Give the backbone structure.
Amino acid sequence: MKRIFALLLLLSLSSQLFAWGPKGHQVVADIARNHLNAVAKQRLHELLGNDDLAAISLWADDVKPQRPETYGWHFVDIPKDAAGFLLPRSLTAWRL
């Protein structure tokens, strides 16, 4: 009986519970900004001006409904056995 209840509970959860949400994006952006070196911070300022990463971290979610072709720009899937991020893999995902 407990397993059935747990399954029903799991199935009833909104898929939004598994999403980052606006606050999650902003927190990750703040953490990322705090780990940038001085050169990266300067380049970021050149790109964003007075905006910071947290301020623009929702852009991909905001623009996706109007521009569905940007879906692949929002993330990069990295295989579990990969050593890390590879730009060529992301370019393939972005279909550039």
In short: Helices lie at 2-12, 21-34, 38-48, 53-56, 59-63, 87-94. Residues 81 and 89 are 14 Å apart (CA to CA). The chain has a mean pLDDT of 80. The first helix runs from residue 2 to 12.
